[in-house]
Amino acid sequence: xxxxxxxxxxxxxxxxxxxxxxxxxxxxxxxxxxxxxxxxxxxxxxxxxxxxxxxxxxxxxxxxxxxxxxxxxxxxxxxxxxxxxxxxxxxxxxxxxxxxxxxxxxxxxxxxxxxxxxxxxxxxxxxxxxxxxxxxxxxxxxxxxxxxxxxxxxxxxxxxxxxxxxxxxxxxxxxxxxxxxxxxxxxxxxxxxxxxxxxxxxxxxxxxxxxxxxxxxxxxxxxxxxxxxxxxxxxxxxxxxxxxxxxxxxxxxxxxxxxxxxxxxxxxxxxxxxxxxxxxxxxxxxxxxxxxxxxxxxxxxxxxxxxxxxxxxxxxxxxxxxxxxxxxxxxxxxxxxxxxxxxxxxxxxxxxxxxxxxxxxxxxxxxxxxxxxxxxxxxxxxxxxxxxxxxxxxxxxxxxxxxxxxxxxxxxxxxxxxxxxxxxxxxxxxxxxxxxxxxxxxxxxxxxxxxxxxxxxxxxxxxxxxxxxxxxxxxxxxxxxxxxxxxxxxxxxxxxxxxxxxxxxxxxxxxxxxxxxxxxxxxxxxxxxxxxxxxxxxxxxxxxxxxxxxxxxxxxxxxxxxxxxxxxxxxxxxxxxxxxxx
Length: 582
Prior knowledge:
The protein is 30% helix and 23% strand.
């Protein structure tokens, strides 16, 4: 096959594939251009998950009329002039490809007016073809409207994720930039509904409050570290506030959002030994360093960087985060692992920090729980299936986490958290199958604030939660009011229950509205079950055993983790040399 020069429109679409991967990529490029233009207000409107419409309006410097056609051409930029400038990048954009790439795979309209002009200009770019420029009335700044994204690249359109996923990607991106630039007034409207709005007063903790709620914003620990010409500031969560994934670890380098494994590893190393395995902190860090110390020209998407002194950056990030943790967190008491008589309970537990008692989560009948006043477990009676679990005789509790019981065929070590998870799950599912999940109205409704992308996930699950005994309704942008919860978990934290519903679904391509209720119930029961590290009275231990015996599947929790370890009498005799080793 002979070698030929590609047509311009084909080359443009190939280049666009590197820059514009999905609708969120369009928003990112347009937002970064608005930031580079010195905007103080940025309004973003999205329809149809960004495939139908993306509009970004700013009040920045605008584009002069004589430069408008050049601005939508490939490799046209005002941000660098020489090759040497690539090693001193101080702006977010610099490649001169964004507008040309967007215009080649959509129907794009650019409207802009520079401060020195009395009238604005408009130009339409459709599939890479430039239309006629015309004069219009317009305020200072720029509005870029992108319609029918990937209309001329159907293969790329088919590879996009579900609308829910694409919307969450956009919302997540905008919330990150709102945190990075708190002195800018941000507004995000998704399908006609306000999703994010900030005041632009420069208070980053106020933005945190808008994203996560006042309670979480208050808990976040400030990081303020400076060494030579490097500075690191931002917020990190205390060890008691964690997530099940690392998606809320956000890193900005010189105002640019990046994904860097070494910086992420440095943050996690700072939390080493303080968090349970599989738990991650909420982190928003802003690294400032000389432009020549970081190479941002690694990938056309500009989301990856290379540091000139990578080891030094790693060390400083780790030191900054660890220093903030030690400054705000009390030193835990050293306690023995074995307790006798009325000795104090050990700290920690499942999902808790060193030196802190696990959250006081109630048992099925809704009585208050906790180390000082343990919760009660509802005792279930009835005919037991001996093939599932034999009748057990309680021996006691060890390490405030495991129950020891004797059965006719040996010894049982039972994980109290996993066992209670199973008990709660089967009770809730049994009530739901009978279409009568008893609910308890809260004395005072609880308002829960979620980040925009998670709020949209929860909206899809409100009907499912109502079937499970929750009374939850939308109450303003990204805010929900909880008025009632299932009677089985009365005394539990409603906010924790709602958070756990959406915590791990960000990348789930199954529409959340179709997620089966058993899956949602299992997630709620995991958070509401009694934790490891919580001392139970003898009556509570007995009740937990009886309830576990009544379960249909007592040997595993709803997530498949074993609830118990069985040591047969025959194994014990061999271990003690009564029958000889085999």
